[in-house]
Amino acid sequence: MKNYINILFIGLFTAITVFFLTFVFLNGFPDISVDSHSLLTFFIILLSLIFSLQGIFTLVWMLYAWEDPDYVKQHKSPEEFTSQKFSFTALIPAKNEEKVIQDTIKAVNKISYPDELKETLVLCRIGDEGTIAKAQGAIREINKKNVRLILFNSYPINKPHALNNGLKEAKKEIVTVFDAEDQPHPDIYNIANTLLVREKVDVIQSGIQLINYRSHWFSALNVMEYFFWFKSGLHFFSKFGKVIPLGGNTVFIKRNWLEKIGGWDENCLTEDADIGFRLTKIGAKTRVIYDEKHTTQEETPVDIASFIKQRTRWNQGFLQIFLKNEWSKLPKTRQKITAVYVLLSHQIQTFFLLYIPFAIWFAFTQKMPIIVSLFSFVPFFLFLLQIVTFIVGFYEFTKAYKQKFTFWMLIKIIITFYPFQLLLMISSFRALYRVIFSQNAWDKTLHTNAHRGMVGVSIT
Amino acid sequence: MLDKLKQHKNELLMLAVLLIISGIAHGYNMFHYPYYENDEGTYMSQAWSLLTQNKLAPYTYWYDHAPAGWILISLWIKLTGGFFTFGTSVNSGRVIMLLLHLGTTALLFYIAKRLTGRSLPGIIAVLIFSLSPLAIYFQRRVLLDNIMIFWVFLSLAMLLKEKLKLTNIITSAVFFGIAVLTKENAIFFTPAFVYVVYQKAHEHHKNFAIIKWLAVSGLIISFYFLYALLKGEFFPAGFLDQSSHVSLLTTLYDQSKRGSDYLFWNRNSDFYTNLLEWLSRDKFTVILGSIAVFINILLSLKKKSLRIPAFFTFLYFLFLISGKLVIDFYIIPLIPLLALNMGVLIDLAIKQISFKKQLIYNCLSLVFLLAISAYLVSFSMVQYTKDETTPQVNTIEWIKNNLASDSYIVIDDSIYLDLHEKRFSGDRIFPNADWAWKVEKDEMLKTKKYNNDWKRVEYIALSHEILRQMRLFKNNFIEKAFINSFPVVEWEKDSTSYFDIDKYLSTNGDWMSIYKVKDKESIALDDSWKFYKENFIISYGRVIDPSNYSTTSEGQSYAMLRAVWQNDKPVFDGVWAWTKDHFQYRIQDKLFSWLWIKDDEDYKLGDSASASDADEDIALTLLFAYKRWGEEKYLIEAKEIINDIWSQEVVLINGHYYLVSGSGASRDDGFLLNPSYFSPATYRIFAQVDENHPWNKLADDSYYLFNKIDKLNNNTMGLSPNWLLIDKETGLISSPGKYFQNKDDIDFYGFDAFRIMWRIAIDAIWFNEPQAYEYLKKVEPFYTKEWITNNNFSAVYSLDGTRKVPYSNISTNVGALSVFTITNKTLATEIFNKLFEKEYNYDLGYWKDKNNYYDQNWAWFGLALYSDNLPNLWEKGNK
């Protein structure tokens, strides 16, 4: 029953906004009557208020990592490692990944940790011959007992199902996930072990960073999204909201907790985020770290279509989680609020960006009280601050990853900022559409190994 | 939090003591000193406009300043329950200035402490800032700079926090944005702020810190431009549209051109002039402070802690000396900065000479603190003792109690609000009290409300500021109103100002006065009298008719009448002296020969005979002069003349007295009479002076004559001819045509006879004489008919009412005006507007033909009668 109420809520919100914007757009404004005029003013105030709060809140979490210099140490990886106590099972789900799987298996194997305390499980579906062959090749080459290929033939065909199959085979205390194109840092187990020992946490999310910012026109901004999300946002939400959506990889979870909640939700498009909420719900303690030295590096989608597909899947997944209502069972109110915000923020941001040109247009063409017109500009100003934040953030990113910051990049970010937001908008609407019309197929992202060649040099 | 307070217990205690000192020094007597400056009222009015009218200013807002300052004031007003909680509206503003001053003081202490790590610099800085007479003088006032410097210091304090977070930096940027939106010149501090952010921000977030500080403050400031843009008032008028409107860009451009073009060291530059004023108020802070800044700049090359105070001060110095326009209160932001520099430097010096011995350091500190405080307090005490605002308060009260609510009053901004907002229920407000400089410069206001006519101004609440504006900006509009006004009430007893009202000079604002602008008729009377005496009176008192260069006793008498009514004793005495010297030499009597003419190059007596109208009018003016100026001699001289008029110019025929036309009026069978010489009102006054003759009977007999004229054959309209002959025996009246060479209008009503109406109207006004009303009522229908039919009057009529000439004349029109002034005020106004006012040149002061001596006189007499400006001075004297 609650599902329907939530769908109704999202639908109504969208419908009202779209209807309102279309209505005012079509109804030639100069002739508008006094009544609808004050209605308009009311809407402008309301929307400006909502979007101002959204704009401010977004800036707050984006900048959180830089708020207090004292945070720097807290967010970084530990400098010294404790003795190796916990054991790790790495799950590598792979489907049609023949290009990258070998490198990945080798990279995971290279993580410096005693062999008896770690195992690597490559998860493939029977029939994906290319990937299976390549994986077997790599395993043979390594020739260790603790690197294995797990094959399965059951349904559904998606990542959470693969992971659950891996979980069944996992023997070690901590389960971690790496995607087929990942390049984990060799110290990552030691880092996780140290935190697990020192801070007695149950879940660790380490930073994931897109790197190939020059590959496509939207890459830089996509890279920056990851940068702000993992470097800043997750810390913010974990500190103030006490709940975060986990990432798809470089996440370390105690196996007994996983088993307690019955593994990943195989019907969810963003099983990673979902499992974060569910673990928090039963009381698991989560820790976030982001250290440029130890982030797991990934690549941006290869083209606009895959970008939109990926983003649609995520948004759709978030909406699914929202509709599943699990968040309402989180113990604390602040956790509920945070969960709702995180799950819906993509949608809100979309309307935020959609609203800005309308607000400007209204302010200049409609006779509203001047204070309202001025107020309607606040979201726009916050949007400008977001661009500024992206630019400075990009500078920080290039510094941290020893890349060159050029004036041209700065211009590029400014030019591509709104078009990039349009891509997000499209994905967001697409996700909404798919949720409403119940299309749940999995759009898988295609990987080409672009991030490895590019930044191989810079990673030490 | 509590721990933190405990940890800083001593400092907080010290700060509390400092705030008390500061509060007393700033607050004691602050409602009385200094006088309410114009700008104080401006910002209070603008806060009022925001609260009550939803506008940024009571007049068209023209982007002279960004509005954050008065937005804050309006919040304060909301909080304290109205504008008059503390007395006048400016007082309310001064209370928030006190709070802001205390805030700035605390911030100054904090900033000094954070910069040096010690308390002494802060204590010194605060004492100087609080006790400096210069600071007190300006900081008490409701000025944007006082609000701005508070925000600047708050913004700076944010950046000096011990553990600087990004949020602190962004908050600092917000405060700085507000500072700029309060007073634009805060923008000059930007480089110093960027430097502080750069220096204080942690390496980890330095980039974000600098960029965010700039971006956030920039965006906040940009609201000002956005406001203009949304209002369509950003670009100059005519850039994107054709309508006329104010423009932010135009204002910025104009403001940048304001001020003198001299470089700052030039004695005529704004900076130099103001520097002298600042020095006169507080040499200590200005001179030693500047020296401290100079030394700090040099030392800061090595010593990092000095850089921030030195840099901030240096930038503001740069602004002051490079800007063309410097206003005295521009010093405000500099004072706490100078104090800060002195505090930091003195502390450094004491530290150096105390050889790291705490005891020596403490002793020296104490000596310094006492010395500075003692010097500053003893330098000037006026700020605690003097009352400069009472004249302004009195002005408000006087206007409230004495003027009509719809009066057009030109005022200082400083009393605007108290006149526009009810202070208590039932209080009167004055919607037409307007800022002087808006009346002068706001074309909309001037055109729409004042119709471009300075005569609409009824009162001027004259102040130091209004004089200053007239002196500096050549405010023609207000100046004209002022020239045509007279003081009604003044409050300047305790003023220390040097005055030269003629040069519009005043040196202090501790006085006020109310000037009433004369009504436009009075203005015309005054101006035309001025024109007349400058153009028609030559030598020491000879009235000349430019058409033939002759002088008549009539002309002299007219000048004397006007002079005594205008209260112009010098001219009166001059004309009277000339008249006596040249006309009053007849052996047999004290009467006046009537004509003085030009003979080639010389002038000489033209006719020694007297003219009775001039004689009686001169006698009357002397009586008036006696009453007005209280000199006995006038009365004695008047009595001699009156006595002789009776003996020489009044005849008794058949039981009735008649005033003959003069000493030469006698003809074979009768006397020449000019009915327009008969002045019953004059005779009633003579009767009070000369009890030996039956003057009252002559007054009555004048009406007897007029009634007799009525019965002449062809007289159907009740008009009188210019001249008559009266039979010596029978008293029969007839045409005297045979005795006149030029017979044209002898028997007609014209250039002589219209004066009857005027003289009878005076009898009606002065003595409420029933016969006068009766007579005027009788002739009224003729004039009414003429006016309705023709909308004008002919200069000459036959007694049956036939127009004898095709033209009108302003003198003869006075006849009709006189009749209607008594019988029908509406028609009188209509006639006045159409036949007189239109003919009057308000700029130069004359009617129609400026060389026509007769017209200039009679238009004046007509206007004076019409506007009730012909008092019976014998009755009223100088009242």
Notes on the protein architecture:
The complex is a heterodimer of chains A (460) and B (879). Chain A has 460 residues and is an alpha/beta fold. Chain A has one domain (1-75, 201-460). Chain A is built from 16 helices and nine strands. In chain A, the strands form two sheets. Chain A has a seven-stranded mixed sheet, sandwiched between helices. Chain A has a two-stranded parallel sheet with strand order 6-9. In chain A, helix 4 links the parallel strand 1 and strand 2 (118-125). In chain B, the strands form seven sheets. A five-stranded mixed sheet of chain B has the order 2-1-3-7-4. In chain B, strands 10-11-12 form a three-stranded antiparallel sheet. A three-stranded antiparallel sheet of chain B has the order 15-16-17, with no helix packed on it. Chain B is elongated, with a radius of gyration of 38 Å. Chain B has 879 residues and is an alpha+beta fold. Chain B has three domains: 65-233 and 259-385, no CATH class; 390-517; 525-876, Glycosyltransferase (Alpha/alpha barrel). In chain B, helix 28 runs antiparallel to helix 29. In chain B, 58% of the residues lie in helices and 8% in strands. Chain B has 37 helices and 19 strands. The interface between A and B is medium-sized, with 23 and 22 residues.
Largest beta sheet of chain B, briefly?
A: 5 strands, mixed
Low-confidence stretches of chain A: 27-34, 453-460
**Number of structural domains of chain A:** 1
Question: Overall pLDDT of chain B, averaged?
Answer: 93
Task: Please describe the structure with a list of short key phrases separated by commas or semicolons.
heterodimer; A: 460 residues; alpha/beta; 7-stranded mixed beta sheet; two-stranded parallel ribbon; 16 helices; 9% strand; B: 879 residues; alpha+beta; Glycosyltransferase; 5-stranded mixed beta sheet; 3-stranded antiparallel beta sheet; 58% helix
